[in-house]
């Protein structure tokens, strides 16, 4: 599995620049202890209204946005499967580094471990705990404060803009300097063994695409126009017979010559949002965008999400309404409309 995220440090963030990192982690680390797919689709209502899409059809589109939720229901939590994944990613000091954060004389501990186990702050994390409660009575703290999508890693790189503070310890002035980088998860991509599967023994030419397309070869389904092997620019090697024979599969297949000059009809082996459909269970989604939108975590954003849930799921959140919108009654006049009564005129 590949986790793709934007990785910013203090200098790049100050200059409004972003660098992109790709990190490979083991697939079981996402699914251990979870019988369900932890990816939960998010309801971008404006997009659904624009394209007139029903809710149950949203996962069928590439624009669907997800959030990792191993619990299968909406609930408050601290340490999650995404924290576990991000903790496998090293910061700017790279793999093997260990940094102990003991700012203000208080060491940071790993909240996923029982007891006081030091947290390696050289890896990306967003939660930490202290041995003693702070002024607010809290031991568990969040790096991003109100931003649940921000991960932080400490480093010792001189090119990173530092933050230095001083404090008094036993009557002596002590200076402490920290350098940090930030990470925001963007997408999860599942890889498959198909990328390395080569049942037809098709020759791979690496970055050299010349022999593959020489003499106007374009992947046609005859020997004269079929690709002569593979390159990183034309990576077709999965037999089309692996998938359900539907027009989509047939139209996207390419002709490729194997090492013996035999014509093979194959499909691309690179990453896709959806796999081609299999005979027994159809297509499989392989890419899950999990990037946050800009208002998530803000007070307005949370109010908007709560309002959206209460409107779209009225039966679930009926107890929240001050006036029941679906209440039955014989009257047809809205309750907030003035009603005028006219009595018989009196005479002197």
UniProtKB/TrEMBL annotation:
<feature type="transmembrane region" description="Helical">
    <location>
        <begin position="12"/>
        <end position="32"/>
    </location>
</feature>
<protein>
    <submittedName>
        <fullName>Uncharacterized protein</fullName>
    </submittedName>
</protein>
<keyword id="KW-0812">Transmembrane</keyword>
<keyword id="KW-0472">Membrane</keyword>
<keyword id="KW-1133">Transmembrane helix</keyword>
């Amino acid at each position: 599995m590949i986790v793709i995220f934007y990785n910013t440090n203090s200098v790049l963030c100050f200059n409004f620049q972003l660098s992109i990192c790709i990190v490979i982690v083991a697939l079981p680390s996402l699914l251990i202890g979870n019988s369900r797919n932890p990816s939960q689709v998010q309801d971008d209502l404006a997009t659904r209204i624009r394209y007139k899409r029903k809710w149950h059809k949203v996962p069928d589109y590439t624009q669907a946005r997800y959030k990792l939720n191993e619990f299968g229901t909406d609930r408050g939590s601290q340490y999650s499967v995404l924290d576990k994944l991000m903790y496998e990613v090293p910061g700017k000091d790279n793999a093997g580094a260990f940094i102990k954060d003991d700012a203000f004389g208080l060491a940071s501990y790993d909240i996923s471990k029982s007891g006081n186990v030091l947290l390696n702050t050289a890896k990306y994390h967003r939660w930490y705990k202290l041995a003693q409660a702070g002024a607010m009575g809290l031991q568990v703290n969040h790096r991003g404060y109100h931003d649940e999508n921000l991960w932080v890693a400490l480093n010792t790189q001189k090119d990173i803009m530092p933050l230095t503070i001083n404090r008094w310890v036993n009557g002596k002035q002590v200076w402490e300097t920290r350098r940090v980088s930030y990470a925001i998860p963007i997408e999860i991509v599942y890889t498959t063994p198909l990328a390395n599967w080569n049942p037809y023994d098709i020759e791979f030419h690496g970055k050299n695409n010349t022999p593959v397309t020489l003499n106007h070869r374009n992947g046609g389904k005859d020997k004269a126009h079929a690709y002569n092997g593979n390159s990183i620019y034309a990576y077709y090697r999965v037999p089309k017979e692996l998938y359900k024979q539907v027009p989509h599969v047939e139209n996207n297949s390419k002709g490729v010559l194997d090492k013996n000059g035999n014509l093979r009809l194959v499909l691309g082996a690179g990453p896709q949002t959806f796999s081609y459909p299999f005979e027994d269970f159809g297509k499989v989604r392989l890419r899950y965008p999990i990037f946050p939108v800009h208002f998530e975590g803000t007070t307005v954003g949370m109010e908007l999400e709560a309002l959206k849930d209460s409107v779209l799921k009225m039966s679930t959140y009926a107890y929240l309404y001050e006036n029941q919108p679906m209440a039955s009654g014989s009257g047809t006049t809205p309750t907030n409309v003035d009603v005028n009564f006219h009595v018989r005129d009196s005479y002197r």
